[in-house]
Amino acid sequence: MKITGVETYWTRIPFDMGAKPAAMAGLQWQGMNTVWLRILTDAGIDGWGEAFGHGCSAASLAVLDTQLAPALPGQDARDISGLRHRLSQAFHLYGRNGTHAFALSALDIALWDIAGKAANQPLWRLLGGAPAETLAAYASLLRYPDPAQVAAACERAASRGYRDVKLHEITTPAIAAARKALGDGVRLMVDVNCPWTIWQALDMTRDLAELDLAWLEEPVWPPGDHEGLARVRLEGGIPIAAGENAAGLHDFRAAFEAEAQDIAQPSVTKIGGPSAMIEVAALARAFGVRLVPHNAYFGAGYLASLHVNAALAPDAPFERLFVDLEASPYGDLLEAKDGTVPVPAGAGLGRDPDMAVLRRYLVQEPRTHSAAK
Question: Which of 132, 174, 301, 367 has the highest CB neighbour count under 10 A?
């Protein structure tokens, strides 16, 4: 099954988070940026992938268009492992993390989509999972301007049936407001996105000790300081989650050997697609670390994350950003109901995106790459 063409898309879909967003991760979040990859084959089977986008969408797209896509026509779409190895090695001079890893993640997702469609099986079955119609989800809130709006957002999430809520707040008053709004019956997690030194992180764990956090996510800068994070884990008294920004399997091994994580959070659009998620899941089991995959997107990576969760971490809550999209590229597959999300039953990822939605929200014209004649 030969790859005959490659298409790339960049969409931005507005969303409502219930308030004006506060700056987070260098962005004023007003819309969901998604970088799409479509692989076409001579068997008439197409596969869809997603590279991590958000604020680096233009950079991820540039790698797809200028380096990855030109290397694909004529390659065997069934050779998931071989393509992954050869292209990872070819691109290694550009770093083991960042936009090249994101581009390779998109490719891996798309090739697994093709494999599932060719076998007429959902991806979760190819990964060895048992049938599941739904997964328990947690509401992953963006950052709000003040504690009152944090509390209001938490109340909305609880009213929609969520029993797990994650914040992206970095101040004690905002986090305390969330705990007060949720009461004791809802688990509360906090992702702070690597803001603190070791000493600052330890100070914050003391401030947060009475708020009964299920985990504290990425409290230390830089994310590669595994020994520093291990100290916060040991002395801070709050379970530590990390791994969204890990530079591959060996970075996870270094973190596990340092005893830096209670919870591993690889991201399918960053770490290398489902192929890398399989590796990290096995490593986490060997070290006794809980796997709770990261998911902060609504493209093909969202569907891939559903399949990965269902197969590799069925008891872990699925991360669903607590926003309402103006339009869904996957219809009702992106909807959460009573704190659960549906798991696709169709072949591959389970559904192709709605092309009318993609075209309506294009940031720029899509590009097509095919074999030279």
Answer: 301
